[in-house]
Specification:
The chain is α+β, with helices and mostly antiparallel strands. It is built from eleven helices and seven strands. The protein has a five-stranded mixed sheet.
Length: about 350
């Protein structure tokens, strides 16, 4: 807060000095004809402006006090007009006394200086109010944006942490199944894979979005665990376009969707099945399709969408993209089940810069 006050004070004096210097130069240029024809002295223009500058500095604490009162704009203007009127009296009198040493100053000239000072100081107060209110509204908007961003990040983080226990529970349940089946080597290998995957999840930076390549690497680690459990019953087909690998996607987007596909589309089938992950660009959109060989009824669709995997994913997409996304679950005529995602295309900066350097 102290640093902010110092910056505000420095900004005030910069604007104050520059503004009054510009006003003084403009006044001199406007009066240059009088200097040449009527032999008006330059101090007749300089002294009142210097005193008005001092008057504006004296008015600043009063204007700051008015702003803290949270009054209406009309109340600001009326009180500012009264303060400017009072302040312009010593300005005019002081100007008359200073100039009296050089030549005779008639009383009507002092009144003219007072009227001019009153108008300029009143306009200065109005400008001060306008600038301060603009600054306050800008700071308020910045605070609101920062608060909204922090709320959104906290919400995404909570949703991500909701997925981790869900994945861990299912994985450990699969390990216990392998142990009960007497497949100790597979259970040991699977525990090592789970540990490696969780370690990568914990050491990775917690961000709302990551590159698709990073998300695919994590998902492949998960699929390796499932292949340990299911063996040849799980077949995987990856068709990821090279130009999509640096596209940004929500963190932990694919793993719960693939887990859902394995759980409902492959594991229940005696003969097993396939999982297909495809990505492509469509103009300025990223399209991702996750398919499996299983089949589900319309009633199961509603039940599945209410689960943690799909329900959590849809909630995160809404938080990140509002309504600018497509997330659908369907059953193609060719068979199987597929989840279709269409997201706004945004590139990961580091990957994009690296690709440009290679060119």
């Amino acid at each position: 807060m102290k640093r902010e006050n110092v910056l505000n004070l420095r900004s005030f004096w910069q604007i104050q000095i520059i503004g009054w210097c510009c006003f003084y130069l403009f006044d001199l240029l406007e009066s240059i004809h009088n200097f040449l024809t009527k032999r008006v002295h330059i101090d007749e223009e300089t002294v009142p402006i210097v005193l008005m500058f001092a008057g504006s500095c004296a008015l600043r604490p009063f204007c700051r006090w008015l702003l803290r009162q949270s009054q209406s704009w009309i109340a600001f203007e009326l009180k500012a007009a009264a303060a400017a009127m009072v302040t312009s009296i010593p300005v005019a009198c002081a100007a008359g006394l200073i100039l009296q040493h050089s030549y005779h100053v008639p009383w009507h000239a002092v009144v003219a200086v007072w009227a001019w000072s009153f108008f300029i100081l009143f306009m200065w107060c109005s400008l001060y109010f306008s600038i301060k209110q603009w600054q306050q509204s800008s700071m308020e908007r910045e605070r609101l944006l920062r608060a909204e961003s922090e709320v959104r990040e906290a919400r995404l983080l909570a949703l991500r942490y909701q997925l981790n226990p869900h994945f861990l529970f299912n994985s450990l349940n699969a390990v216990s199944t392998l142990v009960l089946d007497g497949n100790a080597p597979a259970a040991t290998r699977m525990l090592a894979q789970i540990g490696d995957l969780l370690r990568r999840s914990l050491v990775s930076e917690v961000t709302a979005e990551v590159a698709l390549s990073q998300e695919l690497a994590f998902t492949e680690g998960y699929l390796a665990i499932e292949q340990t459990r299911l063996g040849e019953r799980l077949r995987i087909d990856m068709a990821v376009a090279l130009e999509t690998r640096d596209a940004l996607v929500p963190n932990m987007l694919l793993q719960p969707l693939v887990e859902n596909a394995v759980r409902y589309g492959v594991a229940p089938l005696v003969e097993g099945g396939w999982i297909a992950i495809k990505s492509a660009l469509d103009a300025d959109r990223l399209r991702i399709v996750i398919g499996n060989s299983g089949s589900r009824g319309e009633g199961e669709q509603k039940k599945n969408r209410n689960g943690i995997g799909l329900g959590n994913t849809e909630e995160r997409l809404k938080t990140l993209y509002g309504t600018d996304f497509v997330f659908s679950l369907g059953w193609p005529e060719a068979g199987g089940c597929e989840v279709v995602l269409e997201l706004p295309l945004r590139r990961a900066p580091t990957l994009q810069e690296a690709s440009l350097c290679e060119l």
